[in-house]
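Notebook entry, structure prediction.
Reason for the run: the old model in the group folder had no record of what sequence produced it. Starting over properly, with the input documented here first.
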Amino acid sequence: MDINNILEEINSIFRRELDEDDIEIKYETVAKDVDGWDSLSQIHLVVSIEKHFKIRFTASEIQKFKNVGEMCEVILAKVNNA
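New structure, fully documented this time:
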Protein backbone atom coordinates (compact mmCIF):
# COMPACT_ATOMS: atom_id res chain seq x y z
CA MET A 1 0.00 0.00 0.00
CA ASP A 2 1.22 3.50 -0.84
CA ILE A 3 0.03 7.08 -0.39
CA ASN A 4 -1.96 7.00 -3.64
CA ASN A 5 -3.86 3.86 -2.57
CA ILE A 6 -4.62 5.43 0.79
CA LEU A 7 -5.77 8.65 -0.87
CA GLU A 8 -8.15 6.68 -3.13
CA GLU A 9 -9.64 4.93 -0.12
CA ILE A 10 -9.88 8.23 1.78
CA ASN A 11 -11.80 9.69 -1.17
CA SER A 12 -14.34 6.87 -0.94
CA ILE A 13 -14.74 7.43 2.80
CA PHE A 14 -15.23 11.19 2.37
CA ARG A 15 -17.79 10.67 -0.39
CA ARG A 16 -19.75 8.22 1.74
CA GLU A 17 -19.57 10.16 5.02
CA LEU A 18 -20.34 13.56 3.48
CA ASP A 19 -22.88 12.05 1.04
CA GLU A 20 -21.26 13.85 -1.89
CA ASP A 21 -20.17 11.81 -4.92
CA ASP A 22 -18.29 14.70 -6.56
CA ILE A 23 -15.75 15.29 -3.78
CA GLU A 24 -12.14 15.01 -4.92
CA ILE A 25 -9.78 14.83 -1.97
CA LYS A 26 -6.13 15.57 -2.75
CA TYR A 27 -2.94 15.46 -0.72
CA GLU A 28 -3.14 19.18 0.07
CA THR A 29 -6.91 19.28 0.82
CA VAL A 30 -7.93 20.96 4.09
CA ALA A 31 -11.34 21.18 5.78
CA LYS A 32 -12.17 24.63 4.40
CA ASP A 33 -11.81 23.21 0.86
CA VAL A 34 -14.72 20.78 1.33
CA ASP A 35 -18.35 21.80 1.81
CA GLY A 36 -19.81 19.96 4.78
CA TRP A 37 -16.49 19.20 6.46
CA ASP A 38 -17.10 20.70 9.88
CA SER A 39 -16.18 19.68 13.41
CA LEU A 40 -18.97 17.10 13.67
CA SER A 41 -18.22 15.51 10.31
CA GLN A 42 -14.53 15.51 11.30
CA ILE A 43 -15.37 13.09 14.10
CA HIS A 44 -17.33 10.82 11.75
CA LEU A 45 -14.55 10.93 9.16
CA VAL A 46 -11.84 10.06 11.68
CA VAL A 47 -13.85 7.16 13.13
CA SER A 48 -14.62 5.81 9.65
CA ILE A 49 -10.99 6.10 8.58
CA GLU A 50 -9.80 4.36 11.75
CA LYS A 51 -12.27 1.51 11.23
CA HIS A 52 -11.44 1.17 7.54
CA PHE A 53 -7.69 0.98 8.06
CA LYS A 54 -7.95 -0.80 11.45
CA ILE A 55 -5.82 1.84 13.15
CA ARG A 56 -6.18 4.44 15.92
CA PHE A 57 -5.06 8.05 15.79
CA THR A 58 -4.00 9.76 18.97
CA ALA A 59 -5.60 13.12 19.80
CA SER A 60 -2.18 14.68 19.31
CA GLU A 61 -1.85 13.24 15.79
CA ILE A 62 -5.30 14.51 14.80
CA GLN A 63 -4.51 18.02 16.04
CA LYS A 64 -1.24 18.11 14.09
CA PHE A 65 -2.75 17.20 10.70
CA LYS A 66 -2.36 20.24 8.45
CA ASN A 67 -3.96 18.54 5.44
CA VAL A 68 -5.21 15.20 4.16
CA GLY A 69 -1.73 14.26 2.96
CA GLU A 70 -0.28 14.40 6.47
CA MET A 71 -3.09 12.14 7.64
CA CYS A 72 -2.32 9.73 4.78
CA GLU A 73 1.34 9.62 5.81
CA VAL A 74 0.39 8.68 9.38
CA ILE A 75 -2.01 6.03 8.06
CA LEU A 76 0.73 4.60 5.86
CA ALA A 77 3.16 4.44 8.77
CA LYS A 78 0.60 2.76 11.02
CA VAL A 79 -0.50 0.25 8.38
CA ASN A 80 3.09 -0.65 7.52
CA ASN A 81 3.98 -1.12 11.20
CA ALA A 82 0.97 -3.33 11.93
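Summary: The chain has one domain: 3-81.
The old model has been moved to the deprecated folder.
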